[in-house]
Amino acid sequence: MIYSNPLRGPSDVAGWVAEGPVQFGTHDDGGPGLSGDGTSALVLSGSLDAEEHGDHAHWTLWCPEEIPDHVRITWEFLPLEEPGLAMVFFAARGHRGEDLFSPSLAPRTGFYPQYHSGDLDALHISYFRHKYASERRFRTCNLRKSTGFQLVAQGADPLPPAEDADGFYRMEVIKDGPRVAFSIDGLPLFEWMDPSPEPLGGGYFGIRQMAPLKAAYRNLSISPL
Q: How much of the chain is helix, strand and coil, in % rounded to 5?
């Protein structure tokens, strides 16, 4: 195991790096005689009104440990309140190889262009794209490569709306050199091979949401392939 975090509540991410107006809470998944398995989970949402603050109401939350290449990343996800969008970053570092938290990089506040067209290199998957009506009409999971906001792979999104969600869903990312694969509850959604001569390697993992989405997370695990 490279990194493991139960994500049972805000204390489990006390050392993570928040960029933007993220708000923390706890979700209790039932108990004896109730639906769910009785365990708690970390709830993440935005602290600013999305209508008033627009694209500056969104945020990113980084795991503080650098992750090597050739890994399997899994976590559990449950949408609680819509609309919104959920995303993860991985293999994130400075465009010239700097550490993600180097003071030489421009400050980041959760504003999306800072991540896809700034001074970072990263891969990111958006997998719960329920922010806009067009996304809800035809739901997809998108893989983009930055710097440059390049859409490099796409697959269908099987996740239901929050009102129909039936417990937590298991997300899995494989990052293996040029190969990236993504699945939900064991259902393969896309696989992509980076054709570039120098594909992104190791880097940092982060969670991102577009407000006003409220969602629960638990059982983050990063292991070698």
A: 10, 50, 40
